[in-house]
Amino acid sequence: MNDQAILQEPSLLRSPRQTTVLLPDMFQSFLRYNPAVNPNYETVKAESEDWINRVCAFDSKMARKINKCDFSYFCAIAAPEAPPDRFRTLCDWGNWVFPFDDMFDNGRLRDLPEESRLVMESLMMPLLGQNSQDEKRLDIVRAHDSVVERVLASTTTGVHRRFALAMQGYCHGALMQVSDRLGNRLPSLEEMLALRHESSGCRPLYPLVEYAHNLQLPDEVFDNPCIQELEDLGVEMVAISNDILSYQKEQAEGVPHNMVIVCQLHGLSAQQAFDTVGKLLEDCYRRWEEVEASVPHWGAEVDAEVQRYIDGIKAVVTANLNWSFKTARYLGTAAAEIKRTRRLQIPEESHDYKTLVR
């Protein structure tokens, strides 16, 4: 049996025996506090889910999946002060990104790099100012067109540029995952973290929250190394905590692009793998405090908007962690108990699971 088959066959990643691992303490630094939630959450959640199900012609099974995923709750924490119309646009993007992303993780495009590339090129056309009136465009791509149209109609050229660049990075990361899976190459932990920087889908949320809160920031702010590092740290915190909490789901589905799984494939035990990835997260928390304290000043008016932008990065990270324990997507009905005890039951790794280590 070749490596590719081992990577892609979920049954080889399962075991009837269970073991318990202790998760790292993820509620540190600014994540210690209870998050603010947008007051329009419940109303907009229903509207947004109805929209994505209708536009994409999803069946009842997918509609239930989106409802249980509840990405509107994520958005309600990410943009707690957004007015209803802009909050709705943010929720629409969130309810779009999960079914779209799943096509490349464990869906029909998982093993089709050329078709994946064409879908991504089609997706990027409106953001790059290209004619997107093509009857062959997928419904889920057309749904994103609607989000792009609303964002670009009422925002700055800076937000447009940042959103386009972030989406390009996301598309590149998703395509790299498909390519790596087919190329049968086991990445290092450092390479996996670099790949997840883009493929996690976190970075587009920054300009979307900037849009949702109607922030007014000069471009020079985004050129500042401290701001850029805070953005990177936010992405890393989301990607790392995501890989920790989605481990059960991704292991069961045979998705190898997970930092914990990569550590195991390099020979670490399950607990060692969680500890290693948890150490990366703790390093991010420590570095965040240092960098935030070093942010320069641009004058009172700009400083106030800069602080709102930094708070937006924090809100995205906070949203991801709190949503991960609320949604049924990763931890099911055991989420509250896992949050309280930090103990997660996982299948023991099989012999075949280890044979990928080189």
TrEMBL record:
This protein's cofactor list reads: Mg(2+)
UniProt EC number: 4.2.3.-
Give the record's keywords alphabetically: Lyase, Magnesium, Metal-binding
What is one Gene Ontology biological process annotated in the Swiss-Prot or TrEMBL record?
isoprenoid biosynthetic process
Write one Gene Ontology MF term: terpene synthase activity
Query: Which top-level enzyme class is recorded in the Swiss-Prot or TrEMBL entry?
Result: lyase
Q: List the Pfam families hit by this protein, alphabetically.
A: Terpene_syn_C_2 (PF19086)
Q: Enumerate the InterPro entries for this protein.
A: Isoprenoid_synthase_dom_sf, Terpene_cyclase-like_2
Q: Which PANTHER family match?
A: BETA-PINACENE SYNTHASE-RELATED, TERPENE SYNTHASE
What family does the Swiss-Prot or TrEMBL record give for this protein? Belongs to the terpene synthase family.
Record protein name field: Terpene synthase
Q: Which organism is it from?
A: Cordyceps confragosa (Lecanicillium lecanii)
